[in-house]
Design a protein that fits this description.
31% of the residues lie in helices and 26% in strands. The protein has 278 residues and is an alpha+beta fold. The radius of gyration is 20 Å and the shape is elongated.
């Protein structure tokens, strides 16, 4: 049986996501956030790209009952928190946070507003195992009680899947932006979810029965050590983030028109040096 994959479709490219209300000077829309029934940071929560963002420090303090060490590092422009043996970091401009060795997609970038670090509420709540619900009417976000600590990356990520996924992403797109790496990862996971392809990551990557999509698997370049960003992209995919559930093929832009995919599959978009197809 195919594994069940939790999918989150990226409706905007990373480039579009950076075009936030902060850069345009437009007033941010505030959400009404409650945590365990209590109103949280009234007037200080913002909706950016359909994502509710909250003050990093205030949220961590609320969820830990003030039992967290929280600090800001000017040199790497990152907010940090430590509690119960867990370290959380939210770096300015990144679209993910890191917690307990896990890379969790945010949907919009972490940013500073009037000296306060803001990041997406759902990834922060995930650290505590707290349920988050959204109610369109009244722009209401409800965060439940902390339930359990986030399992560590060493426990959560399957070592074999991470080995192969990070290497194929790196071999195919190490010169591409993070967006391009995530798109390559999405092709693999979309094939994994399809009945037309093998039901393991390794099987999909080394699938030669359906033609050769992943050339490095046949040439051997897949065995090169992956770049750091390729490992991050692999972990984001393994957390359940799928860049776009439609993409099934990709190729170099230079051969897009003459490739099999270019002549037989619907073109979706180009990211860096790759054209992607449904």
């Amino acid at each position: 049986m195919k594994r069940i994959i939790i999918k989150a479709i990226a409706m905007l490219t990373l480039a579009a996501a950076v075009a936030l209300s902060l850069s345009t000077g437009a007033a941010a829309i505030c959400a009404n956030v409650t945590i365990d029934g209590d109103s949280f940071c009234v007037g200080q929560t913002e909706i950016i790209n359909d994502t509710t963002c909250v003050p990093f420090r205030a949220f961590i303090e609320k969820m830990t009952g003030g039992n967290a060490v929280i600090w800001w590092d000017d040199e790497d422009e990152t907010a940090y928190a430590e509690f119960d043996g867990i370290t959380v970091s939210a770096k300015m401009g990144e679209h993910y946070i890191v917690a307990n060795g896990r890379y969790i997609w945010c949907g919009t970038e972490t940013y500073l507003s009037e000296g306060t670090t803001y990041t997406a509420v759902r990834p922060l709540a995930k650290i505590f195992g707290a349920e988050v619900t959204w109610q369109e009417q009244g722009l209401m976000v409800t965060v439940g009680n902390p339930n359990e600590s986030l399992a560590s990356g060493d426990e959560y990520y399957d070592a074999v899947d991470l080995f192969w996924l990070s290497r194929i992403i790196s071999a195919e797109s190490k010169g591409e932006p993070l967006e391009g790496k995530l798109a390559v990862g999405a092709v693999i996971y979309n094939r994994l979810a399809s009945v037309d392809y093998p039901d393991t990551l390794y099987g999909v990557i080394f699938d030669f029965d359906n033609g050769i999509q992943f050339t490095p698997a046949s040439t051997g370049s897949i065995y090169a050590f992956p770049t750091e960003e390729s490992i991050i992209a692999a972990k984001l995919c393994m957390e359940g983030f799928i860049y776009d559930e439609r993409i099934m093929f990709f190729c170099a832009v230079s051969i897009a028109e003459t490739s099999w995919a270019g002549q037989n599959r619907p073109y979706l978009y180009t990211i860096g040096g790759h054209a992607f197809f449904a």
